[in-house]
Amino acid sequence: MTEPRYDVIAIGNAVVDVIASCTDELIDELDLNRGGMTLVDAEGAKTLYAAMGQAREVSGGSAANTLAGASMLGLQCAFVGQVCDDQLGEVFTHDMRATGIDFDTPPLTDEPPTGRCLIFVTPDGERTMNTFLGAGQFLPATALDEELIASGAILYLEGYLWDPEEPRKAMRRAIEVARKADRKIAFTASESFVIDRHGDDFRAMIEEGVIDILFVNEHELATLTGESDFEAGVAAVAGKVPVLVATRSAKGAIAIAHGTRAEVAAEPIDKVVDTTGAGDQFAAGFLSGYAKGEPLDRCLKRGAIAAAEVISHYGPRPEVDLKALMAEKLG
Predict the structure, then answer these.
(1) Contact, 240 vs 275, CB < 8 A?
(2) Count of other CB atoms within 10 angstroms of residue 212
(3) Using one digit for the tens of pLDDT, what is the confidence trace for 240-250?
(4) Please, is 207 exposed, middle or buried when counting C-beta atoms within 10 Å of its C-beta (0-12, 13-18, 19+)?
(5) DSSP secondary structure code for residue 36 in this structure
(6) What's the predicted TM-score (pTM) here?
(7) CB-CB neighbours of 228 under 10 Å
(8) How many angstroms separate the CA atoms of 218 and 228, rounded?
(9) Looking at residue 1, what is its pLDDT?
């Protein structure tokens, strides 16, 4: 096995987040899925954008957000995702490369446009996401650079992108390439509604030993296992994946690796401003330790620190020097 060139290579949605504060009443008026993520079509995206107040645009996408944090923490990263050759596509590409991430997937030259996620943030910091995937759902297997995929120590996949057919085929092929190269497969379930639709696929991958590192939150774990009790859900999965990471918002997180369990409390912060990207940055922090062989409890602590930073401000990506923050918090 050759030495990997990258610590993490991710395949995910290439999305630009459009974030705006809103009232609880507006969530009800627009009949949105409060606190969740809903896929919308182009017309739905236009309607919701028109209803938003003053907004800010930042590059997002679950796996891309994780890579942004991981790159800031010193990991060598590359991203595979589909944009269009349009304004938002240029924004996304610039933001990824500016963060030190290699991103060279050829853009589409025509429709559909680059994906965008319209995020409504209520006064309690909860985010309600409405995503138009756009170009992202047309990532073909032919866009994969298989030498690139084989050169990453960890292949990180997001469940959101399992929904459309073309990217699903691309990710299945990437898994084959990565496993042949003896690399690790990390998978984030992303959202309960994705598990509702593709849970049989995910459970089959778990049973077959395809997934080496599984990231879930407690709601996704319940949907995946059918167990409403958290510990019962953990027990149902822990023996089937080498590394299980389960987050519980304010209740902290646990990880079980090869039978060893560790737990971490949530990092205290003054105020929750926007929970967008919390799970993504937790994964970034965890992987930044895991890739360097750090102990499990320290990997969890890194995840908690990164998640706390991102929920203290608007947007899904860190706004401080994460390396310095980790040094300060970890000692």
Answers:
(1) no
(2) 17
(3) 999 999 999 99
(4) exposed
(5) S
(6) 0.90
(7) 8
(8) 9
(9) 64
> What mean pLDDT is predicted for residues 281-297?
97
Both tokens of 8, joined, read 């993490």
Closest CA to 264 of 281, 252, 256: 252
Note whether 269 and 231 are within 8 A (CB): no
Q: Where are the alpha helices (DSSP H) in the chain?
A: 24-29, 42-51, 62-72, 87-98, 146-150, 165-180, 192-207, 218-225, 230-238, 278-290, 296-310, 322-330
Buried b (16+ CB within 10 A) or exposed e, 233-245: bbebbbeebbbbb
> Sign of torsion, CA 225 306 175 60?
positive
Beta bridge partners of 261: 256
- CB atoms under 10 Å from CB of 53, counted, come to 10
Does 119 score more than 70 pLDDT?
yes
The answer to whether the CB of 164 falls within 8 A of the CB of 137 is yes
Report the alpha-carbon distance of residue 256 to residue 254 in Å, rounded.
7
Q: What does the alpha-carbon distance between residue 165 and residue 142 come to, in Å, rounded to a whole number?
A: 14
pLDDT, tens digit (0-9, with 9 covering 90-100), for 73-105: 999 999 999 999 998 899 999 999 999 999 999
CB 225 within 8 A of CB 233: yes
Tell me the residue type at 272. V
